[in-house]
Amino acid sequence: MKDKIEAIVEIETEGEIGLIRLAKPPVNALGVALRTAVYEAYNTLSNDPGIRAIVLYDEGRFFSAGADINDFGKADIEPTLPQVLKSLNNSKKPVIAALHGVAFGGALEMALACHLRVGATGLRVGLPEVKLGLLPGAGGAQRLPRLTGLARAIDIICSGRDVPAKEALATGILDRLFDAPVRDAGISAARDALTGTLEPKRTDALVVSEDPGAAKAARIGLQAKRPALRAPLKALEAVCSATLPIEQGLAKERALFMELMAGEERAGLVHAFFAERATGRIPERDAESRTIKKVAVIGGGTMGVGIATTLLIEAQAARIETARNGVVANLGGALSRGKLSDEGHAAALGRLECTDVLEKVAEADLVIEAIFEDITAKTMLFNKLDVVCKSGAILATNTSYLDVNEIAAATNRPEDVIGLHFFSPAHVMRLVEIVVAKKTAPECVATAFALVCKLGKVPVRAVVCDGFIGNRILTQYRRAADYLLLDGASFTEIDAALEEFGFAMGPFSVSDLAGLDIAKATRDRKTAARPSDERYSNVADLICDAGCFGRKAGQGYYLYETGKKVAPNPGAERIVEAERRKLGLTPRTFDRDEIVARCLTAMIAEAVRVQQDGIALHPVDIDAVELFGYGFPRHRGGPMHQADLIGPTKLIRQIESYATEDPQFWQVPALLRDMQCEGRSFADLND
Ligand code: 3HC
Fold first, then answer.
1. Which entry of 22, 100, 140, 453 is 20 to 30 Å from 375 by CA?
2. Which of 68, 69, 84 to mutate to test the pocket of ligand 1 (most atoms within 8 A of CB)?
3. Residue 310 has what pLDDT?
4. φ, ψ of residue 335 in degrees (nearest 5)
5. % of the chain surpassing 90 pLDDT
6. CATH of domain 471-614+618-686
7. Using an 8 Å Cβ cutoff, are 38 and 8 in contact?
8. How far apart are the C-alpha atoms of 550 and 540, rounded to whole Å?
9. Residue 12 annotated among the catalytic residues of the structure
């Protein structure tokens, strides 16, 4: 017998066993529709005297991605997930969860409320709520420790990590692994539950012993590792409540969950979750992708080595071996971090070819140029590529600032030329700006997007301007930091304030890492075009001229020993003081809030101009650039998300007050005024 409830859950009976199949694409998110359907299906089977056991399962890609993230921040509609799970746990008939693919968050919580859990060998389970600024809010923090013990549950819940099937079995989350089709495995487990071969348990009836040592160690670890985040510590508090009687523990967990749900950390992290997935909405979405089998990278410097996995072309024969070693080291790193399997590693090494013969690019379907940042060198190279490359090959430049239209014009096939701006270290950083030039063909854009997604990276569409999306914003952020430095804040104070805000590194530590000489070369290139009324800070140039190139030189803004920051560089401090004296500036003090406000406002103002000028398609694309390429704190959501939180009125007031000191730098973007007049948010422009 088969019956469908709202077509998102299917009920079926197999003798004395009732089956509930979840069928709500794309991810079986447990929003109100699916919750209600499961609840009704369960009640139907529970009230059927012919049914003695109930199986919950799915035959799609995976069991379920958990609660519907789109519902967060909205009013709860009954039946809530905790209500549904309570009735499953209280069922007089054994309820079995047969899991495959993934069961995350509320989905694992649903399984934990069942009386038995069986899992396919490739299953991954987890309670990743902390990654969304939350904690398990449907009993997960109470029921998981009842199966695994407190210490393991703390580890799983406070990290939000995936737990593979084998570990889930070993730790008591699963009762059995299976290789059979999931429906068969569910039926078989239900039969075994009825015969007593498997022993069904009501999780709520189990007890958890206290483990003060584990809780204390976790608290110290979380405070040290993630001081800016609230969710992991609240999650710890929720798990520790599992030692209370179940009703009290559940009530405590739910209260903590609701507290986090109302917070900015949750809003920022959920925004980041969707930003990661939103950048594919491009006009070229329906264009047919070209086939890419062989990729050539030209340039064996840091960038080229980071990008390359197949054919690497380095013009200077003497540098080929160094470049090869660099790629081999990156692949080795990926292997040891578990990002590559042994077979994948061996295959990648087997594919790798390093040469100084440019003509080899003739074999490539995609060529990525990653030579030094010089327009003449790049146009000359593209001129040659036009001759050598096969018809239909995509010619990409990894430039971070230069005019892709000019590079394309050096070829007779500008429709095949595109910018693919990777971020250093390219084998680690997830962002790739896809720079669409005036004549780039739609298939070329679609192919680039597909390839970048296949690499597991985040593609963001941009059009040509100096610095595209990310570096354009970075320039203004850096200027705000440099002005603060001249006006009286120390670089250590500025770094500390922005690190407290959540950046992994403040702007001056980042400069040291990236190399002061690299940034100086970019500034030198732009000198002629710099407006005469622009305030210019010489400090970075002077520090660079003193041979302090940053971490690689052992000194920059800070001093380094064997690559580790040890102290602020007194030489750099003296240069700052001398420059202030020379300019007749009396240093002022800036508190942390003002440092953050000025840097963030400068960043937001430029981000708004990037949107206003049509460089980015949507505000959320700008946030994705900052989150995945520039270390913007994930829980802050990105500059456009922050702009919505602060609101246009306050931002305009802030810019206008700073403008009294420097009207050239602090200007209110027209789009920000429009948003204020129309009462709209940047989120509205994402639709
Ligand atoms: N709610 C709503 N939408 C979701 C979702 C969820 N839980 N999980 C994924 N989606 C959406 C994605 O946004 C995407 O939408 P789009 O096509 O419109 O962009 C679509 O489903 C497909 O998702 P992915 O592109 O991520 O698909 P993958 O196959 O690559 O990955 C996945 C699938 C591993 C399930 C991954 O989506 C994932 O990790 N999802 C989040 C899981 C999670 O964090 N769950 C916990 C939710 S919080 C919770 O349960 C609270 C509870 O304690 C009360």
1. 453
2. 69
3. 63
4. -65, -50
5. 83
6. 1.10.1040.50
7. no
8. 11
9. no
